[in-house]
Amino acid sequence: MSGAHNSETKKIGFIVNRRGGGGQGGKTWDKIEPTVAKRLSQVKWKVEYTQHSGHASDLAREFVEAGYHTVVAVGGDGTISQVVHGYMLAGGNAKGCAIGIISTGTGGDFVRTTKTPKNPIAALDVILNNEATLVDVGHITCAKAEQPSVTVEQYFINICSVGISGAIIKRVESSKIAKLLSGRLVYWIYTYLTGLTYVAPRVKYTLSEGAPDSEESKDQQLNLYIMAVANGQYLGGNMHIAPKAEISDGKFDVVCLHNLSLFDAITKAGPALKSGNLMKLPANQAFTQKNGKITMSPIKTSDTIYVEADGEVAGILPATWQMIPNGCRMILP
């Protein structure tokens, strides 16, 4: 955003998740706040702290609507995603606002793709010295988990996935031990436990950007292990699930694993997810495709299949994903 406004008129808002990463968010902000105050002594700036789930979205929306030129997410993937959601609801792109990132979370999936510095002072330098660039944003419409007759929608910036990943996130969010252990440890505990008992549901899906008479534009069915609708490349802390995804190409990388036995999931899918070599799996167990719109629903209406977006439960199937090319201004390295 630097260069788009004179320093006398620029306004920067910081949204800090102090509890993120086991309290790392608050510790990071306390360390860098004196530097922020010094570096922005000639700029109007303000900090707000999140108080509850979804609060970062509300704060981002308020900053955009108040005419702030830059909104900085200080937190992990969930905080970044919520800030993007609020920014989009407020029409941040059209208002000339940009998002900056100071990552403090345990996962750091999105910043792996963008190569945003993990060092908070270096990340602040990026925000203050670099120009904003346009990046794509994902949008999902799905059923509300607690009330399936109600439709909910959400914007996301990294990856939205369904299948075993949604089941894992649901268990993490419902866990009583999640507040006692580190987020990454809890995630891997439930990844292991869920993997042992997960039964792949039968779903139907459509990749909607094919020619009307093409096979890809028709409803197809599979036993779903995981489908990642990817803008970024990484999922779940260090899984390189979409190595060819780009945040500015106007398309999702749709990556799907299906028809896997428990043995295949452990011996093939696990190593492939970590290494980014998913396409070395047989064609009858994996596929990837560039696409801008996807729909999916369960074959059995009694199946509850959770969808996660940027590491938080978004809802359940049925769902529709839509890409919004160049939907957000972001300050990146």
Structure description:
This protein has 333 residues and is an alpha+beta fold. It is built from eight helices and 14 strands. Strands 7-9-8-12-14-13 form a six-stranded antiparallel β-barrel. The chain has a four-stranded parallel beta sheet with strand order 2-1-3-4, sandwiched between helices. Helix 3 links the parallel strand 3 and strand 4. The chain is globular. The chain starts with 10 loop residues before the first strand and ends with a strand. The N terminus is likely disordered.
Total helices: the number is 8
Order of H and E elements = EHEHEHEHHEEEHHEEEHEEEE
- For the record, give the distance between the C-alpha atoms at the N and C termini, rounded to a whole number: 12 Å
> What multimeric state do the chains show?
single chain
Strand content: 25-35%
Spatial strand sequence of the major β-sheet = 7-9-8-12-14-13
Total E-strand runs: 14
Roughly what is the average pLDDT, rounded to an integer?
Answer: 90
Poorly predicted runs of 5 or more residues:
1-8
Helix/strand-derived category reads alpha+beta
CA-based shape? globular
Rounded radius of gyration (Å): 20 Å
Helical content class: 25-40%
Main beta-sheet annotation: 6 strands, antiparallel, barrel
